[in-house]
Amino acid sequence: MTQATARAHTNIALIKYWGKQDEQLKLPQNNSLSLTLDHFYTDTTVIFDSSIATDDFQLDGQKLAPQNAIKIQQLIDHVRQLSGQTAHAQVISTNHVPTSAGLASSASGFAALAAAASKAAGLDLTQRDLSRLARRGSGSASRSIFGGFAEWQKGDSDETSYAVPIQETVDWEIAMLTVVVTAKEKKISSSVGMKRSVLTSPYYSAWVANATQDLTQIKQAIASQNFEQVGQISERNAMRMHALTLSSDPSFTYFNADSLKVMQAVNQLRDAGIPCYYTMDAGPNVKIICRPTDAPKITAVLSADFAPDQLILAQPGPGISYLD
Ligand SMILES: O=C(O)C[C@@](O)(CF)CCOP(=O)(O)OP(=O)(O)O
């Protein structure tokens, strides 16, 4: 019996991944860039044990039904193929996200799984190969191997599509205040949503061209620690991603009334001289990019409409680590 435990933190994309060039290998259409956060993480233990009769997957204390574990099964099978390990696996994952958060991220989950499974199987993967393996679970998981700012280079094959660190130790003032407007599961998953956008939005090719420019600009802004530039580019890029959902056929959006309320509040705060910007992913929760020192003022304004446990401040977080 061999086992390993890994911890991976979730990441929020500032330049979004929204569309694949290859569904099966999860190769994206454009490079993306994210910030790994300290507050939300997943701990995963993988045990390869020849005495167990089948693979067994548990998430937050609940046994996962096979139909909900297809991607986990595929990743474990791939690790067995890579390592020659033949024993069945027990996977025990715990998402450390605020209970009501609805932020249980596939990014931290599949990054932790890739790290724990490969180590338990006796593989000693480079960070690049770990990122490639995590990408097979969920594209955004490829970025959670690294702390701070990371860029997922799209590549054009399994071997060339992986994340690289841009600035693993972020020693300048940037934070993310997540406004949890709901913890309900989203109806349209990011996988399904992005596929519809690629196939039906008339703006998709413009998205790829613009996101590529955004990425070049944001890397310069990060290098010069230009907070306002990072915020402006992130907000612009996120809204262009959500324009793809609205312009898909049939149209769909992840915004709800509370999302728009938060976005309005951010605009008012900015007009009042507080530099803050919003980004959103495949759900209605809003992430506000702000300076840590401004978070109390922003929280005070939002507390008129949201309870304290819906307002979660996170700072830049670390990359993958092993707990045993
Ligand atoms: O994180 C980002 O770049 C932007 C998003 O979060 C949505 F806004 C996409 C995440 O997609 P993911 O769940 O990784 O899709 P998969 O590869 O189909 O599993």
Automatic annotation (TrEMBL):
The keyword Nucleotide-binding applies. Its EC number is 4.1.1.33. Keywords: ATP-binding, Lipid biosynthesis, Lipid metabolism, Lyase, Nucleotide-binding. GO terms for cellular component: cytosol. GO terms for biological process: isopentenyl diphosphate biosynthetic process, mevalonate pathway. The keyword Iron-sulfur does not apply. NCBIfam families: mevDPdecarb (TIGR01240). Residues 8-163 form the Diphosphomevalonate decarboxylase-like N-terminal domain. It comes from the Bacteria. This is diphosphomevalonate decarboxylase. GO terms for molecular function: ATP binding; diphosphomevalonate decarboxylase activity. It comes from Secundilactobacillus oryzae JCM 18671. Coiled coil: none annotated. Residues 177-309 form the Mvd1 C-terminal domain. Belongs to the diphosphomevalonate decarboxylase family.
